[in-house]
Every structure is written in C-alpha cells, then in structure tokens.
From TrEMBL:
EC id: 2.3.1.39
Residue span, Malonyl-CoA:ACP transacylase (MAT) domain: 8-270
A cellular component term, taken from the record's GO annotations: cytosol
Pfam families, alphabetized: Acyl_transf_1
Keyword terms of this UniProt record: Acyltransferase, Transferase
Lineage per the UniProt record: Bacteria, Bacillati, Actinomycetota, Rubrobacteria, Rubrobacterales
Source organism (scientific name): uncultured Rubrobacteraceae bacterium
Gene3D superfamilies in the record: Malonyl-Coenzyme A Acyl Carrier Protein, domain 2
Protein name: [acyl-carrier-protein] S-malonyltransferase
Biological processes per GO annotation: fatty acid biosynthetic process
Catalytic residues in the record: S67, H170
Top EC category: transferase
Length: 272
C-alpha cells in the first residue's frame, strides 16, 4: 500500500520567496510591476511552491489550508482558478486591513494551556475576544480588542506569544469585512474539486464546489480548527504532509500531535 499524501498551505506570517511562471503572470495582471499586498504575496508563494512540489512528483490525495491558506488549498484542489484566487485574496487583504484600522486589535498564541480552559476564560471575559485558532492540543490563539486580550491573558496559564498580525482576525471585529467578502465570493464560479479539501472551520471533507465556496465564506469569522484538520487527516490514513510555505510553521505544529507514523515535510526539504 502506497503512502497517502496531503499538501497543506499556511496563513499569516509566511510571506517571501520569488515566484515564477504562471503565478508571476497572474500577479502582474493584478498589481503590474508593484509590490503585492501581504496576503497576496503569501498566497502567490504558496501556489508557486505547490506547483514546484507537483513538478517534483508530490501529488496530493487531499489538501487543506490554515486561514488565508484555504484560498491556496481551494486552488490546489482544482476548485478556484488562479486569477480568481489572486483577485479574491487581494480584496481579502484590503478589506481586513480596513477593518483592522477601525478597531485596533490583535492575536496572541497561548502555548501549554488546555484549549477548553482557554475557551472558558474567553467566554467569561469582558469586551470582544474569542478563541480564534485551535492549532494543536497545546496551542490556542486568542483574538480581539487589545484590552480584552490582555485581561484574558492574565487569566490563562501557559506562555503567551503576541502574533505579528495587522488585526483581530477570526473575531467579530471582522464582521464588516466578512459580509463584503461574501458578496465577492458569490460572484466567482467554483469548479467541483478534483482533490478533496479538508475545511479548517470544522475539519470536514469538502467534495463539492458549493462546500468549498461555503468554507471560504465562513472562514473570516469562524475559528481555525487546525487540530480537527489533522485528526481528519489521521482518520483518512494520511502519512505524509507536505507544507507549501516558506517558514515550516505547520510542519512544526505537527510535532504536538505526537504521531510518529506521520511525516511532516517542508517544501524546502522536498525540493532539495
């Protein structure tokens, strides 16, 4: 029996790397010779790495993306074409940046605390703050207004690491941006996926164009349940997970699941 491969796509914090070929052409059509906005640079880099992985013989049986990475995953699944992906991600960057400018907020990773305890403290907190990313059994990210984040941080055990992001993503502070994004998604044609995609909001396997569109529509306000994505991979028998990103963030998180039977491979490792 052969190995079952997944390719995963990171979200914030992974910009960088030169792109080439049709990804570079799609970027030029959108931004000309200018610098792409941050989220678009991340998306383009992930897609370019995916193409290079595929050229090197890495054909996934399933894909998934963390937050922004779901757009690259939808493209890799064959559901979202490249030009539509570039346009949607550029607009997502603009809308979320505008929302972040209206109400200053942030995100903090809590490492070593029980996810259920984090959720309990967040529910009892005053102000706008939510558990935004359930990344691993020992890493949860909270998101919200600055004051509320500080208050919640004081009530939770574990190490707190502020994230270098522009705003309180996956929180109610993104409601206006999410509503406008929903209208943009409604105007895009999605194809039936050629490869199944695991949605990060619920860890469900997405096998239809409608399901992929719904996942992208819901993801700006829903928490990222990356731990559920990994559990779904394990159920599906995935034993190799390739990360189409520069930083290896998702590969490092895999260690928390303590699955010696599942191998995490960064794009850099796979391509050298």
């Amino acid at each position: 029996m052969g190995q079952k491969r997944a390719v995963v796509f990171p979200g914030q914090g992974t910009a960088g790397g030169e792109v080439s070929g049709e990804v570079a052409e799609a970027l030029r059509r959108r931004v000309g010779g200018g610098e792409p906005p941050y989220q678009l640079a991340v998306f383009a880099n992930s897609v370019d790495l995916f193409y290079r992985l595929r050229d090197a013989g890495v054909e996934p049986e399933v894909v998934a993306g963390h937050s922004l990475g779901e757009y690259a995953a939808a493209h890799a699944a064959g559901s979202l074409n490249l030009d539509d992906g570039v346009r949607l991600v550029a607009e997502r960057d603009r809308l979320m940046t505008e929302a972040a400018g209206k109400v200053p907020g942030g995100m903090v990773a809590v490492i070593g605390a029980d996810p259920d305890e984090v959720e309990r403290v967040v529910r009892e907190a005053e102000g706008v703050v939510v558990a935004a990313n359930f990344n691993t059994p020992r890493q949860t990210v909270i998101s919200g207004e600055k004051g509320a984040l500080e208050a919640v941080g004081e009530g939770i055990k574990g190490r707190k690491v502020p994230l270098g992001v522009a705003g309180a993503f996956h929180s109610p502070l993104m409601e206006g941006a999410a509503a406008r994004m929903e209208k943009l998604l409604a105007g895009v044609e999605f194809a039936e996926p050629e490869v199944p995609m695991v949605g990060a909001a619920k860890g469900e396997v997405l096998r239809t164009a409608r399901a992929v569109r719904a996942a992208l529509r819901e993801q700006m306000l829903s928490p990222v349940r990356w731990a559920s994505v990994m559990e779904r991979f394990f159920e599906m028998g995935v034993d190799e997970i390739f990360e189409a990103g520069e930083d290896g963030t998702l590969t490092r998180m895999l260690r928390d699941f303590k699955r010696k039977d599942v191998r995490g491979v960064t794009a850099r490792e796979a391509l050298t």
